[in-house]
Batch of 3 targets.
Target 1
Amino acid sequence: MTQNQWSSVDDYFDSVLGNEDPALAAAAQAHVAFDLPDIGVSRPQGKLLHLLARIQGAERILEIGTFGGYSTIWLARALPPGGRLVTIEWERTFAEAAAGHLEQAGVAGVVDQHVGRALDILPTLAEAGGPPFDLVFIDANKPDTPEYFTWALELSRPGGVIVVDNVVLGGAVGEAGNPDGGVRGMRRFHEMLAAEPRVSATSIQTVGGKGYDGFTLALILP
């Protein structure tokens, strides 16, 4: 199959199952203002996150990597009354753009935005001693994914779910000698998963409008 075919199938699914409103559509175009590739999750992936959060009954969600707020909106809209979402973004201009999209989507009141280096902010969340998270979505700097996962495990409850995006990297994750920092980070992350007795996990390859990649789903065992 070709990229055109993958995109065509995504377009079909979007036409029959998509329910993207103007706020989501605006957040999906955040990359344009920053002259960046389309690095956010796709509409089907956003809906998958939303459904996972609802299936999980998640009342507390942590997101590492806000970007334009697209996945944030999907996740926030899955929260029950009284639920909260904490999201972390390194780049202030991205976070400011996301804040506008969250306001437009009507979810700003249930989202706590943090701006700064995630590996500096995550320890402060642990020190604050708040309730554990039910679901964590990691979609940030790929070389640091193992450290993000370590904190996600620390901050989540038994029975919680951790989702890590972009784990396939166009197939490069299978290349043991690849020197790229993101590839090395993802390989180290999977080796960590294999050695971690507290979780049961799987990684799924995906194709679609955003190309060839995949995600990892990890369940924290009771």
Target 2
Amino acid sequence: MSPLLTVANLTKQFGTQPVLRDIAFELEEGEVLAVLGRSGCGKTTLLKILAGLEAPDTGTLALHGQDLRPVPPNERQMVYLYQEPLLFPHLTVFENVAFGLRIRKAARAEIDQQVTELLDELDLRGHAQKAPHQLSGGQRQRVSFGRALIIRPRVLLLDEPFGNLDAQTRADMQQLFLRVSRQHHITSLFVTHDSREALTVGTRFAYLDQGQLTSFGAVAEFIDDPRTSIRSELAFWENIQQNAASAC
């Protein structure tokens, strides 16, 4: 069976500055490709090209074999989630999540059922009639996640979606993402600068550095690559634990 998403020889530069260099990867249905990289490495540009918000200079991208380059963003069956939830401030939580179904003119009973079930999954049912400004940051991000899921996208593109949340809320959202992703068999490209987040959410791993993407065949390779700094982080925490144990 062919991959769901295939990207090959993708390049992009702004002026004389190369941003992406010969990017290539594949995504199977249900996979979460966690792409780790520092700020300015090209992660956001890659997602915008996939979403149709930027055009590549060269290269191909295909969804189940269909060339995506001429396909407008609203027909790509992809949803791009940012750090900021970007909710409609004048709509309730329920109506924000229902928006995509209403645009598609789904039946009212279908909308009520699907939105209510999804709000339950996202622990938002008690907030259905609230406005976005009445929610916490984590709750707003869950509403944004629900609005994306309700239209059953083929691929979710996540641009550091939990980056603005505090540590505990971020950890909670990572676990929520894992649970819902598995339940709905969601295919995702999740970019982050946080190695722990990448290891938590990913089923496959890659590293983006100066516009070049390295894919790893196994999690051990990802951890051991010195560019990810994961091995040094692990050593740091092991030293902290040993020092704490010695002090006791």
Target 3
Amino acid sequence: MKFGIVMFPGSNCDRDVAYVTRDLLQQPTRMIWHEETDISDLDVVIIPGGFSYGDYLRCGAIARFSPVMQQVVKHAKQGKFVLGICNGFQVLTEAGLLPGALIRNRDLHFICDRVPLKVERTNLPWTQNYTQGEIITLPIAHGEGQFYADEDTIKQLEDNNQVIFRYYGENPNGSVNNIAGICNAKGNVIGMMPHPERASDPMLGSTDGLGLFKGIGARSVHAV
């Protein structure tokens, strides 16, 4: 599997993700500048965390208009894999690849912490290395991480089993139904607020996030 990691002005977690895919998993990885218009060589596109365009207007609202995002949408529609982490999740909702929106945290404070998550779905390439109901711990760092959608959208997400991760125990940001990560209907596009790349190296004291990257890295190019 060949990974590509999108870099916008203001992205700051791109190298962390590259360290996991390129150095820990030994997978081909290249950095994608936001002005690129050809990503046809890639199997997996990751939109990392950070503050794309300084989070002006709304988080992800400007980044969605970058030339590369047209290619990411095409990539996803072809059934290829896309992962949005934190700001990347916000970009995916702004681009219409995932439903809902990420709004200001319930208490209007930036949160930087480690939180327990419950794995809700394991029949996806991304989550196949976890077990149903497993509790993992991942870092979060966001000011606008509260997942919100109207009642019909939430019902559709729940009915279609599109919720991948939920906050377990205390809800840190007020997300509806404790939602921490979702996928599209097909399951090839995932967005999540917690940072799996920050819990992938044993030197950091946790590898709970590594399973996500191992799962997708083990897939064949044509498997969805």
